[in-house]
Design a protein that fits this description.
Layout (H helix, E strand, L loop, with lengths): L1 E3 L2 E3 L12 E8 L7 H16 L5 E7 L3 E3 L5 E2 L2 H12 L9 H14 L8 E7 L9
Parallel strand pairs: 3-4, 3-7
Antiparallel strand pairs: 1-2, 4-5, 4-6
Helix pairs in contact: 1-2
């Protein structure tokens, strides 16, 4: 158990389970409703997650409000240099605009579909960080 910013966090995984490399696309809501404490919590969570990535993992960010933006054009290996660059990017996240969740998720799926040179037996995932309902797009 861990207490982070007044919240209890519990991580668990069976010890006998093998650890597979992860291919993670973080889809981050930066709409107006995320302003203030919510975007601060999102930045803090992402910075912690970046520290926990392993060198064999791959990752990228997609941010969205009424527009969708890719941080990089492909997944990056979780090297110390790439994680530091990502941490700098995370620090710049600000909130404004609408919420086009659908287009952001479709973009994330596309990023994973076109990914190349990923580790064999890796696990691909999309992690959506949002606070609400779509207000633009579908």
């Amino acid at each position: 158990f861990q207490i982070v910013n007044g919240y209890f966090v519990h991580y668990f995984a069976p010890r006998e389970m093998p650890v597979f490399p992860k291919n993670v696309v973080f889809v981050i809501d930066r709409s107006g409703s995320m302003a203030g404490r919510k975007i601060e919590q999102t930045r803090e969570a992402l910075l912690k997650i970046l520290q926990d990535l392993r060198p064999e993992d791959h990752f990228s960010f997609i941010t969205f409000n009424s527009k969708v933006a890719e941080w990089k054009s492909s997944l990056l290996q979780a090297t110390a240099e790439n994680a530091a660059s990502a941490a700098g990017f995370v620090q710049t996240l600000s909130a404004s605009g609408g919420t086009d969740i659908n287009r952001a998720l479709l973009t994330a799926v596309s990023v994973l579909d076109k990914a190349e040179r990923l580790p064999e037996r890796s696990v691909s995932m999309i992690i959506l960080l949002t606070d609400g309902q779509p207000t633009s797009g579908e």
